[in-house]
């Protein structure tokens, strides 16, 4: 088992590579998801096929630290994590008493062999569901379901996905809900950035995006807060 240690010392457990592989082997993963898993072996990112769900990305820690700053907020809440990968932020909200958590990623193999087992590796009583889908499918597949809290980490690197990511949030956020996106300020060589994502969201006129927290580093990072426009 691996452990993510947060700045305040809290530890979140998650499966290591060997445990993920055992899950794949014992549950016919290669047969079910053969071509998807080939992309995992090839690279960190194959656009719109596999985009790094089996790894823990840096901003996950920022989002977890941010959750730790207000832990009582999550009790009884419904939570959605978009582009979840390991879903450690969503796991943390479950630890802090979220009543239901829905996790979404591109890859069904990630959801089955990494994301959902990570919830089982930590103590909580939340009802947990997960499903594979693209952000463009979220409005239709979640079919009117709304969440108090939406989380997302390291998902704004591709400007081509801003519309579907925006629509995924707009269609699932409660009227008084909140979304927190953790991201690097710029994704060098890829195109996405915090300013361009916030500009896109604010221009669309349905949601408002503000910078909530600055994380100073050689590549600076941000927590962006999104709410419904009133
Ligand atoms: C860089 S990884 C970040 C994973 C995780 N949130 C973290 O911070 O460790 C980006 C994640 O977003 C998912 N993703 C990327 N584009 C997507 C899309 N268009 N629709 C659905 N999921 C997508 C990928 O499958 C991947 O798990």
From TrEMBL:
It comes from the Eukaryota. This is protein-histidine N-methyltransferase. GO terms for cellular component: cytoplasm; nucleus. It is found in: Cytoplasm; Nucleus. Belongs to the methyltransferase superfamily. METTL18 family. SUPFAM superfamilies: S-adenosyl-L-methionine-dependent methyltransferases. It is an enzyme of class 2 (transferase). GO terms for biological process: methylation.
